[in-house]
Every structure is written in structure tokens, then in C-alpha cells.
Amino acid sequence: MGTIVRNRPRQAADLALSATGLVGFFLAWHLLSLSGMFPARYLPGPLTVLRTILEITGEPYSGATLWGHLIASMGRFGTGFLIAAGVGIPLGLLMGWYRWLDDVVSPFFNALRFVAPIAWVPFAGLWFGTGIGGPTLVIVSGALPPCLISAYRGAKFADKRLLEAARTLGASGPRIVAEVLLPASLPSIIAGLRVGAGVGWQSLVGAELIVVASGIGYMMVQGQLNVETRIVMAGMIAIGMVGIAIDSVLRRLEMRIRKGWGH
User: Fold this and answer.
1) How many Cβ atoms from other residues are within 10 Å of residue 226's Cβ?
2) Based on CB atoms within 10 Å of each CB, which residue in 124, 153, 210, 236 is the most buried?
3) How far is Cα 23 from Cα 13, in angstroms, rounded to an integer?
4) Residue that wins the pLDDT comparison between 177 and 80
5) Measured between alpha carbons, how far is 44 from 48 in angstroms, rounded to an integer?
6) Residue 135, Cβ density class (10 Å: 0-12 exposed, 13-18 middle, ≥19 buried)
């Protein structure tokens, strides 16, 4: 209880600093828009953008409301992110346990992970057109490396005593991976999921700027084509808010797991 009480002033101070930063940013934005340095059409003020967000929340823009575009984007993100985690985490754990698999996969993986996700956009367009496959490919290319690397490192740095105990009890390799390496690697895996989710969400928006016919990125493109900067900025704010929400959920999950493991 004493620790919680002592932490409250620190938390209040952190919140105050965060609020000050946000207020300062929006005030500077507002003053810059009023200065006349840029035409209002190209730099709308924060109140104009807020009104735009409220407007497109209820009225369709480019075929859907803001919520409709966000739901389309979240569907693509969820599909790609689940594939990345479903492939990356097991493969990373197996690579951390089986040396031969590490030797086989690492050269290919190390070459591909340095290719920017946006570089896959032309292939996504050629192979999948405007279907869900294109954005999914781009998201997987961005989210897979952090998921795999975090699982691999978690397996490599697992407590050797646990591994020796499992071997002594006669556990097989797959069972050690599932019942020893996976639980021991959870804190590292969740941290990798946070990074992967951030990269995947950014990759999705990049893909939607080119290869889809709906979604928040598509809405921004239409705003650009119509020279409606307020739409573009409204989309940027929506992207940021959704990204914060995704990271907040994963951060809470990470804190719970670390607390349970005594980290």
C-alpha cells in the first residue's frame, strides 16, 4: 500500500507532463494555422480537423464512414498479424531449440527481414490486386520478424536449469519446446508482439495507400486526390489513436505476464 501511495505523485506528474505536451502541440498547430503562412486548405486548424472527424464518423466518405474504413483496416491488420504471430512464434522457438533448423532458416530470414514492408507493395498489387491478400502480405512481412526474433531470443535465454530438468525427466524435444521454452519465453514474446503490432499497423497503412479500395489509408488517398487536407489529417489522427489502443492492450498483457513471472 505504501508503494502505491508513493507512486501516485509520480504518476500525477507524468500525466501532467503528458497533458502539457499535448496542449503545447495543439496550441502550436492552432497558432500556425492562424498565422497565414499556409493556406487553410493545406493546413487546417485542429478544430477544423476535429469537426471533420465528427462529420465523417456519421457521413460516408469514399464509400464508407470513418468507422467503416477503420473496421476494414482492422480486419486486414488482424488477419496479417495473426498469421505473423502464428508462424513467427513457433518457428522462433523451434529455431532456438533445434540448431539445424536455425542454420537452415537464418540465412533466408536474415536476408528478407531487412527488406522494408513497403517494398512488398508492388508484388502485393500484382499478385492479389485489391483483395485482402495484398495487405496481408505486407503486414506479415512487417510483423513477422519481431515475432520470430523475440521468440528465438526467449528460447535462447531460457533458464538452463529448467531445460536440464526436462531432459533428466526424459521429455522429448517438441514437449520441451511446448512446456518449457514457450512459458519461459512469454515475456520476450509479448514484447516482440508489441513491436510487431506497431510495424504491422504501419505497414498496413502503407499498403492501403496503393493496393486497396477501402480502409483508412484508402480514405487518405482520396482526400489527397480531392485536395482535402482535413480528411488526410483526420485519417492520420485515427491511425495514431488506433495504434495507441493496440499498444496499450499488448502493454497491459506484457505487464501482467511479467508480474506473474516476477520480472
Assistant:
1) 12
2) 124
3) 15
4) 80
5) 6
6) buried
Cβ count within 10 A of residue 234: 28
Instruction: Give the global pTM.
Output: 0.82
pLDDT at 130: 67
How many other CB atoms are found less than 10 A from the CB of residue 129? 12
Comparing CA positions, the residue from 204, 80, 195 lying closest to residue 146 is 195
User: Residue 154, CB half-sphere, CA atoms under 13 Å: how many?
Assistant: 29
List C-alpha distances in Å: 160 to 73, 155, 165, 184, 189.
42, 10, 9, 10, 18
Name the grid cell of 223.
Answer: 482526400
**Burial category of 103 from C-beta neighbours within 10 Å (exposed 0-12, middle 13-18, buried 19 and up):** exposed
List, in sequence order, the alpha helices (H) in the chain: 2-34, 46-58, 66-97, 99-112, 121-128, 133-156, 160-168, 173-176, 182-208, 216-225, 229-261
CB distance 127 to 213 below 8 Å:
no
The total of other beta-carbon atoms located within 10 Å of residue 67's CB is: 12
Cell of residue 201, nine digits: 499497423
Q: Which amino acid is at 4?
A: I
CA 22, CA 15: separation in Å to the nearest integer? 11
Q: What is the pLDDT of residues 183-205, one digit of tens each?
A: 888 888 888 999 999 999 988 88
DSSP assignment string, 131-160: STHHHHHHHHHHHHHHHHHHHHHHHHTS-H
For residue range 150-191, what is the model confidence (pLDDT) as tens digits? 999 888 887 777 777 767 776 676 777 777 778 888 888 888
